[in-house]
């Protein structure tokens, strides 16, 4: 029995330590996930175990055949490459990340970008500069579409702001036109589903950091900035913001360790019996807070938060998908149509 308890304790320690391990985001261009056949240079990319990643170095080209790939850029920015497509890493420093789409299609999801970081996407004769939240689709033939947020585009020697619901070609005349944001393709919907999975893993990772290592603050184990974090239970990397709660462009939420603790406590209190109101005061009805969802006043029980909480040691509770496309987000999620 003693040996069994020792083994269990050691296994728990190792698993929790792995949970708390932040990816060292010293460079951009970490290949975190692939499906099908993907090549880096002449070598086929294989998924590695235990959170080890394949790094794209400057001047290297990643090419998909019948497959897709997910590449982590600066913390909070994910580039997803479609089938029969290729990207070239021009520069992989966090302060200056430049990636060129040389053929095919890609979708870039920028949830958060540190002020010290810069991401530039090159396609055709255009350069798309990301400095804040954006969801942009790149097509080497058909140009650029902005589904969420905005970005600066430099093309033909002129800088323009490409805003949500606008598109522009990547070559020739760079006139902007409107497009229907509900018009999505299989890559976009796949990117939305992947975004949901990454957000699910965030809840468990944030809780593990806060509960096991943060000492109540979530700032333990060298956690001093937003970054990528490996979640061994999900077998994938997720994004962990430094503080508060943020929404991804697809509408899924990311929690910091401190924020997830606050929301989880509300959820636990919601399951407890409601206390009778004190003398001289009535029970107030629920009120809405854009950050906290619905809750009651301090005399009553707390209602469940607007986003479900997951377990720290197992799978997190998944946000319920909206009706329609399986890839749609919960809050302003992906476009409609059938999932592919």
Detailed description of the structure:
The chain has 340 residues and is α+β, with helices and mostly antiparallel strands. The chain has two domains: 22-181, Sandwich (Jelly Rolls); 197-340, no CATH class. The protein is built from three helices and 21 strands. It has helices at 2-19, 186-213, 257-270; strands spanning 30-40, 43-44, 54-55, 61-72, 77-81, 86-93, 96-103, 105-110, 119-123, 126-130, 134-139, 143-155, 158-163, 166-168, 177-178, 227-231, 236-240, 245-247, 253-255, 287-289, 293-295. The strands form four sheets. A nine-stranded mixed beta barrel has the order 4-5-8-11-12-10-9-7-6. It has a two-stranded antiparallel sheet with strand order 16-17. Strands 18-19 form a two-stranded antiparallel ribbon. Strand 1 and strand 2 form a beta hairpin. It starts with a helix and ends in a 45-residue tail after the last strand. The model is unreliable at 1-20, 213-222 and 274-340 (pLDDT under 50).
